[in-house]
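Table S5 (text form). Sequence records supplied for joint modeling of the two-component complex.
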Amino acid sequence: MLSVVALFGALMVITSKNPVYSVLWLVVTFFAISGHYILLNAQFLAIVNIIVYAGAIMVLFLFVIMLINLNRESEPNKNRWIRMAGAVAGGCLLLVIVAALKNTEFNTRSAEVVTGDIGLIKNLGKELFTTFVVPFEISSILFLSAMVGAVLMGKKN
Amino acid sequence: MPINYYIFLSIALFCIGIVGVLTRRNSIIVFMCIELMLNAVNLLFVAFSKMHHLAAEAAGTVNTAGTDGQLFVFFIMVVAAAEVSVGLAIIVMMYRNIHSVDVNFLNRLKH
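The corresponding structure-token record, covering 268 residues in total, follows.
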């Protein structure tokens, strides 16, 4: 059920004409993926996914779409052959990867659902601030540089 | 839940993202499809992390196995947030210069 919602949302993202509807369907897809995280008992990632993706990033997209006045259909030269070639290429990739992975040894493995406590904030935080503390600090520097870059590019030159 | 359900769901989401990147000309929608692909990979990361945890638990070894995968998802989200902020700034700047967000207008590198 959640997978159907995720796939339908993703399909609507790439087929809807209006970019605003595209963003809203992407939010639906992200909520479905968060539902999967909750089912896998990765609660921290589910909450972070909702807050960061569905909350912050999608609002940023919506804001930019409204800012540059794109909320109407604005794709002038629709080349039908290019669209068809893109769809065929994506379908071929899907087919090849599925066929390659259909008979692997992963068929016997399974993921642990609902139980297990590695996804809780306590365990993840303990690991994040002991083993992964250097990448954490580096990511804060990355954020700082991204902020400086965004402000620099958004400035009128 | 068998792991290959998650693998096939992630592959399907990733391929939908690729089709979107290849077919749409609106650069904002191309960007959204990239986010979709990142999320497909994140879902696969979490599923494999839980699979690894189950295997380690059955073997009776350390019970923090699989934490690394979920932290990688966290770092991917961090990098994606930074990427989105810079990318949307680039798109706004591009709209300001050429009054369009069509990626076909970007095929020349000068002016």
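Note: Chain B has a mean pLDDT of 84.
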